[in-house]
Amino acid sequence: TGESRTRRTLGLHNIYYAGTFNMPYTFMQVKGRKIAFCAFAPNAGTADINDIDSAAALVRMLKDSADIVIVSFHGGAEGADYRRVYKGMEKYLGEKRGDLIKFSHAVIDAGADVVLGHGPHVTRAMDIYKGRIIAYSLGNFCTWGGISIAGVNGVAPLLELRINGSGEFIDGVIHP
Q: CA 112, CA 106: separation in Å to the nearest integer?
């Protein structure tokens, strides 16, 4: 399957990943700190972005055993018409794609230090909540086939962050 080939390719290149139902999180060591990484999406077989209570419980568990917790999510309505972050549940083609503000605030309240979003295929706002950074969508870094990368759909910044040992945002650079 595509999923098993992706896991194999990531493993061959020592790229950490998470977010599947069977592997919602992973740990890594960076400069002597234990980093937990978890990911959520609205899709079958993934840790569910719409189950905010379970997401917060997972983050609390990870924070108990890691110095820094990074949360990634795939969510939000898609396309150039959805460059803003909306309050409440976002949908795309009838699928519930998450209440991104509520989700992001809940995982930070539970102990997340960085929240990185993607999914709408456009860039969206960033926010600081309780000293932690949220990037609601970093656009289309890599995509396939039928997804247009014309205009605003082709913007994919890289976000370089500096956080302190407690996970608080210090500063960052957006690389176009």
A: 9
3-class SS of residue 167: coil
Q: Could you report the per-residue pLDDT of 26-60, keeping only the tens digit for each?
A: 999 999 999 999 999 999 999 999 999 999 999 99
Distance, in Å, from the CA atom of 55 to the CA atom of 39, rounded to the nearest integer, reads 9
Q: How confident is the model at residue 157 (pLDDT cuts 50, 70, 90)?
A: confident
Tell whether pTM > 0.90.
Answer: yes
According to DSSP, the residues that pair with 46 across neighbouring strands are 20
What DSSP state is assigned to residue 49?
T
Q: Count CA atoms closer than 13 A to 143's CA, side-chain side.
A: 19
SS3 state of residue 169: strand
Decide if 50 contacts 41 (C-beta within 8 A): no
Pairwise CA distance, residues 114 & 68, whole Å: 8
Q: In which region does residue 165 sit, left (phi positive, over 0), alpha (psi from -120 to 50) or beta (all else)?
A: alpha
